[in-house]
Amino acid sequence: MIVLVRICILTVFVLQSSTASAQAVTITDAATEAGTQNSHFSNAVQKPLPFELPATGIVNSPGTGRPLFSVNVKRGKLNGNWQSWFANGVTCDSGKLVNNLPDGEWVFRNEQGGIRSVRQYSADKFLRITNEMLHYHPKRSFYYLAALYQQNKRRALQFLDAGYSFPGSQSRKPVISVQQLVEENTSTGYAYQPVFVQCIHEGLYMNYFESGLVEDSGYYKDGMRTGKWIHRDTATPGWYQGAYLHDKRIKEWKHFDDQGRLTEIIHYRGGREVWRKKIKRG
Questions:
Q1: What phi and psi, each to the nearest 5 degrees, are found at residue 231?
Q2: For the chain, what percentages of helix, strand and coil (3-state, to nearest 5) are there?
Q3: CB–CB of 105/82 below 8 Å?
């Protein structure tokens, strides 16, 4: 009888061990698969910088000794305040970075010190949005970009690219160092390219013509144009004014001439023009 009981206990123990082993293998496989998916997602969404970073501090221009840029590097990434200078000592661009992502206000100027661009970014919002892209659930979705990513990955990722924030930078050839990047930014004939490669807009966005006249002005929310905006097509007076929702023009847009008189009304629905009306004046 005692022998029979021992055999039964041993059988139960073996079965439990086999089940636990199978569960462990299953969990390990699932974790490995999840890790692979996360790796694929990270490669698709979060890009590394295309150049090696220098040591923390002020980097001088070779042969001149003048300050070229000031950089802070922590844990192998850009962290802290950033600033670069033209040859005459005027600041070219300045802002703050958190793990290679811009955070807060970023300002770009011309050689005379005139502001050309103002941006507001959020490193935290970038992480929140990309995390929701990965763990997307339609009933627990907070960000339009995360939903867009499920429908059109390429389009969604465009809003995370620095080339979307500064379109002119897309025409630049790849650089091999931060020094080369800044030297080209502070030279004539090169479109401005920021030191970061990805970002999320959150807040004020403005562009200025060389004359100081505002070219674009409005706000971003969760990485997309939202609310009232103003656009000018050229440096001559006259502007378009209207609203965006999820980066699409909506409802009524108005065109004003250089005297501030209404000349045209254009109506949009979901980013598409549905009708327009010219205002005739005697």
A1: -130, 145
A2: 30, 35, 30
A3: no
Task: Read off the pLDDT of residues 30-89 as tens digits, 9 standing for 90 and up.
Answer: 333 333 344 344 445 889 999 999 999 999 998 888 999 999 999 999 999 999 999 999
Dist CA 153 CA 137 (whole Å): 16
| Distance in angstroms (rounded) separating the CA atoms of residues 86 and 94 | 12
Higher pLDDT, 109 or 22: 109
Q: What CA–CA distance (Å, rounded) separates 56 from 99?
A: 14
Region of 246 on the Ramachandran plot (φ > 0 left; ψ -120 to 50 alpha; else beta): left
Q: What's the predicted TM-score (pTM) here?
A: 0.82
- E-strand stretches of 80-200: 80-85, 91-98, 101-102, 104-109, 115-121
> What angle, 0 to 180 degrees and rounded to 10, lies between the N-to-C axes of helices 2-45 and 123-134?
130
- Taking only Cα atoms into account, the Rg of the chain, rounded to an integer number of angstroms, comes to 27
User: Which residue from 145, 120, 119, 117 is spatially nearest to 131, judged by alpha carbons?
Assistant: 145
Q: Are 105 and 118 in contact (CB under 8 A)?
A: yes
Q: Residue 102 has which token pair?
A: 């811009």
The rounded distance, in Å, linking the Cα atoms of 111 and 265 is: 38
DSSP-assigned beta bridge partners for residue 262: 256
- Which two three-digit tokens encode residue 53? 């970073």
Closest to 168 measured CA to CA, from 201, 191, 199 = 191
Nearest partner of 87 among 3, 7, 9, 186, judged by Cα: 186
Q: What are the tens digits of pLDDT across the range 177-234?
A: 999 999 999 999 999 999 999 999 999 999 999 989 999 999 999 999 999 999 998 8
Task: Tell me whether residue 238 is exposed, middle or buried, using C-beta atoms within 10 angstroms of its C-beta: 0 to 12, 13 to 18, 19 or more.
Answer: middle
SS3 62: coil
